[in-house]
Design brief:
Elements: H1 8-19, H2 27-40, H3 50-67, H4 74-86
């Protein structure tokens, strides 16, 4: 037996979900089913495969090249491109396609 406290909004949401089920489960059964469903759901934040990563990098590279056509210096262009592909520093820790850096 497992117990937990649910605020009124969560409880009402569970009851409403149960009402839409064909067999109208009890509150306990509805909670059990929802927990089972939650445990079966695949993680949505998985890292892309090597093939996907290469395709994404190529797409980003082409997009950046198309907007930096007028850049006079090729070294400056390459530097800007690297910076854009890395992304803003504050978001780098959230990227799933890059290995995490140890501090």
């Amino acid at each position: 037996m497992v117990g937990f406290r649910a605020d009124p909004v969560i409880r009402a949401t569970i009851v409403r979900w149960a009402e839409y089920q064909p067999d109208k489960p009890t509150l306990s059964e509805a909670i059990r089913r929802l927990v089972e469903l939650g445990l079966k759901v695949k993680k949505t934040k998985s890292a892309p495969s090597e093939r996907q990563r290469a395709a994404l990098a190529d797409l980003a590279s082409k997009a950046i090249d198309s907007v930096t056509v007028g850049t006079p210096n090729s070294n400056e262009k390459a530097s800007r491109k690297r910076s854009l592909i890395k992304g803003p520093e504050e978001f780098r820790k959230d990227r799933v396609d890059m290995p995490k850096m140890k501090r």
